[in-house]
Write a structure and sequence with these properties.
10% strand, elongated, 2 domains, ABC transporter transmembrane region fold, 607 residues, Rossmann fold, alpha/beta
């Protein structure tokens, strides 16, 4: 129930629409009831079963007063114009009442639409904002496809759940209460019998759908696995083909897909069972009521035939709400299962938190300092990735980090903009702990060019101007020229307005990398991080990218992670990492003279 109330909290801002929905639902039920109730006295008067009402009664706010007043109008019409004309007018009046009923029903649905769409939009926006705010460590233990499934499929299920709940808790109770009240006026004895039958029916239906929520959670989780495999397949088609792994991937996908099929079949079977089961049980109730009421009429026990006919007509109006209750119960259970998955993400701890009194920082003035820094990925094991690091990077200097894969180089630089928070020690910028700065200000100090070119399926212009407010075409072009990207951009079909495809797939590796450099140039950061920016390029592309990087690094504080050691020989300081610690440090000439790890790495690359 907690998740249900939490979902409903998103409807509060749409209270006006909800009230209008309630109003028109009430009018729908009222006009439906009036059109049915009028049948009984009209039939009684038309066939002379009761005396005509010749004295105009006083109209009051009660069902009895309303019925008496209608009897008077119908009696006057029959006596004035005759039975045939009265019958014609009565049929027209009933048709008009049903028109109004359905008009108000449409208006109720019309004002329900903003609630439905608005609440879902708000949930999806909040979920996406949380996805952006969660640290990188969260995604290292979660499947990307499962996160996408929560943002799409689960939110869709919650939408259905919201609508089902609103319709059930507003329209159907109104229908049932009003019709039961009308039935109570016609025959208290028969109504009590109907009420007991409805309770028994509701209990049976509830038992059938009890296990649906658990199965829905499992199905949505498996759906996320399907999306993950599909995403990995699209991203790795080249490798799949190269290693003839199509059969392996098909078998893997088929296994998960079969599991999803089995769960979906069980869920759909139970959900689809609701309608025929409800209808069968309803007809059993109808037959039972018909028999019980028929015996009362035949035995002349205070129930007239016309009243019994009207009673059965009104009772028939209770069957659709009962069916809707059944269907909505299944939808709500399934929606709550999806809500649970959504709120798991929304309630995930944001470990990279900004202090309430965080300090602003607009420029980098002196130095970066690692002071006894240690770091552990809490979601894996207790092994320290970084251990007891002490390092200073002065403004305007170029510091290079080298070492074998897994030595901790990338983790070192990821700690600076707080992609992760350190486990021990301090990282200081201009003498202040990075955790004391405003997060946006801190990250604004850094520009990053990584080994993998992170681009988006958008235009060249938007990829270069990414994250830069009010970027002009002139500044973007200037940044592209510095990055040696302008010439190849102009050869594209639409120049800077050309779409580059998913992850920049329409461009070569060197072209993609030069776009990321242009992005960094446009940001104009005081501190530059280059994470193996040229390691995956051919010689010609590397030369162009290296020229662009030299322009970008000019006058900036630069931290370079490099596998190709030829690119960092002129660094002010080279840090050699091994097993999360600094093993050697110095410039190229000094480290070569030590005849240690660095020299062996250089000699290995010389062949």
């Amino acid at each position: 129930m907690k998740n249900l109330f939490r979902i409903l909290s998103y409807i509060r801002r749409y209270t006006a629409f909800a009230l209008l929905n309630v109003l028109f639902n009430v009018l729908t039920v009222v006009f439906s009831l009036v059109s049915v109730i009028m049948i009984i006295p009209f039939l009684q008067l038309l066939f002379d079963k009761i005396p005509k009402v010749v004295v105009k009664p006083e109209l009051q706010l009660s069902a009895e007063s309303f019925i008496n007043y209608m009897k008077y109008i119908l009696s006057d019409e029959i006596m004035t114009n005759g039975q045939l004309v009265a019958l014609e007018k009565f049929c027209v009046a009933i048709g008009f009442l049903f028109f109004l009923k359905n008009l108000f029903r449409f208006l109720a649905v019309y004002f329900l639409a903003p609630i439905r769409s608005g609440a879902v939009r708000d949930i999806r926006n909040e979920l996406y904002a949380k996805i952006l705010s969660l640290p990188l460590s969260y995604y290292s233990k979660e499947r990307k496809g499962d996160i996408i499934s929560r943002l799409t499929d689960d939110v869709k299920e919650v939408e259905i759940s919201i609508i089902s709940f609103i319709e059930v808790t507003v329209r159907e109770p109104l229908n049932i209460i009003i019709y039961l009240a009308a039935l109570l006026l016609l025959s208290p004895q028969l109504t009590a019998f109907v009420f007991v039958m409805l309770l028994v029916t509701g209990f049976i239906i509830g038992r059938v759908g009890k296990s649906l929520k658990k199965q829905s959670i499992e199905a949505q989780s498996v759906s996320g696995q399907l999306l993950s495999i599909a995403d990995e397949t699209l991203g790795g088609l080249r490798i799949i083909h190269a290693f003839n792994a199509e059969k392996f991937m098909r078998e893997q996908f088929d296994k998960i897909n079969t599991e999803f099929f089995t769960l979906s079949r069980k869920i759909n079977t139970r959900r689809e069972l609701s309608s025929p089961l409800t209808e069968f049980l309803a007809m059993c109730v109808v037959c039972t009521v018909l028999y019980f009421g028929g015996t009362l009429v035949l035995d002349h026990k205070n129930l007239e035939a016309e009243t019994f006919i009207g009673f059965m007509v009104l009772f028939a109006q209770l069957i659709p709400p009962a069916k809707n209750f059944s269907s909505a119960s299944y939808n709500i259970r399934k929606g709550l299962a999806s809500a649970q998955r959504i709120f798991e993400v929304m309630d995930a701890e944001v470990q990279i938190a900004e202090k309430a009194n965080a300090l602003p920082i607009r420029e980098f003035k002196r130095e970066i300092e690692y002071r006894k820094v240690g770091f552990t990925y809490n979601n894996y094991d207790s092994k320290k990735i970084i251990n007891d690091i002490n390092l200073k990077v002065e403004k305007g200097k170029m510091v290079a980090m080298v070492g074998q894969s897994g030595a901790g180089k990338t983790t070192m630089v990821d700690l600076l903009p707080r992609f992760y928070d350190i486990s021990e020690g301090q990282i200081l910028i201009d003498g202040t702990d990075v955790r004391d700065y405003k997060l946006n200000d801190l990250r604004g100090l850094f520009g990053m060019v990584s080994q993998e070119s992170i681009l988006f399926n958008d235009s060249v212009f938007n990829n270069i101007a990414f994250g830069i407010e009010n970027a002009t075409r002139e500044t973007v072009i200037e940044a592209a020229k510095i990055a040696n990207a302008h010439d190849f951009i102009m050869k594209l079909e639409n120049g800077y307005d050309s779409t580059i495809g998913d992850r920049g797939g329409k461009l070569s590796g060197g072209e993609r990398q030069r776009l990321t450099i242009a992005r960094a140039v446009l940001k104009n950061p005081p501190i530059l991080i280059l994470d193996e920016a040229t390691s995956s390029l051919d010689s010609n592309s590397e030369k162009l990218v290296q020229e662009a990087l030299q322009k970008l690094m000019k006058g900036r504080t630069t931290i370079v992670i490099a596998h190709r050691l030829s690119t960092i020989q002129y660094a002010d300081e080279i840090i050699v990492m091994q097993d999360g610690k600094i093993s050697e440090r110095g410039n190229h000439i000094g480290l070569m003279a030590k005849n240690g790890i660095y020299k062996r790495l250089v000699e290995l690359q010389a062949f």
